[in-house]
Amino acid sequence: ESALETTLISVLESRDRDVELIIVHSGDYEDPYELAHDEAVVLETEQGSSLSERLNLAARTACSPIVQVVLPGTTLEASWSDEGLSRFDDDATHAVSLPIRDASTDRVVFGMNAEQLPHRGMAFSTDSVAVPLLAGSRIRRRSLLKLGGWSEMISESLLDLELTLLMRSWAAMLRASSI
User: Fold this and answer.
1) Does position 178 have pLDDT exceeding 50, yes or no?
2) Which of 47, 52, 43 is nearest to 148 (CA)?
3) Dihedral-angle region of residue 17 (phi above 0 means left; psi in -120 to 50 means alpha; beta otherwise)
4) Bridge partners, residue 140, by sequence
């Protein structure tokens, strides 16, 4: 069983029926469970496409106003699809950090630590989060698309930091435009 299949089983076992599931792959997923028939939108990109390209395709394809990235190998708790959604009732909220367990340390992390930016320190509590990690965040789709999505020109290892800086820039632009 591949890391992607492990994640898909976890999502399918714990999601609400109204959660939109989009699977984007670059030719390496066979859809053994035939999810494309009624459970998910399955999109195939060119071989060798970057994670950024796949994420941007999913964000453009999504119908839901809130998107969440779940990377292969991630397993989810039963209540994952409910967590954090109410915080989007505030239009000023563009991203919400959800707790994820770091497999290497077995610690729960919430995102990038605000006090350690631009360095990549982790936040171990919600009160020190600058912006969520890529694989533990819910993002307002409209905000993500206005920011141009994820850069397809930077290393995949920098996508978390890019999201942090983009969201901070977005917040600064909103504050400036309301003056």
Assistant:
1) no
2) 52
3) alpha
4) 66
Establish how many alpha carbons lie within 13 A of residue 8's alpha carbon, considering only the half-sphere containing its beta carbon. 22
Sequence-ordered list of residues with C-beta below 8 angstroms from that of 130, at least 6 positions apart, any chain: 111, 112, 113, 114, 117, 123, 164, 167, 168
What DSSP string describes 59-127?
HHH--SSEEE---TT----TTTTTTTGGGGGSTT--EEE--EE-TTT--EE-EEEGGGTTS-PEESSGG
Which are the contacts of 156, defined by CB distance < 8 A and separation ≥ 6?
50, 51, 52
Over residues 26-61, the pLDDT tens digits come to 888 888 888 898 889 999 999 989 999 999 999 999
Mean pLDDT, the chain, whole residue set: 82
Q: What is the mean pLDDT of residues 166-175?
A: 66
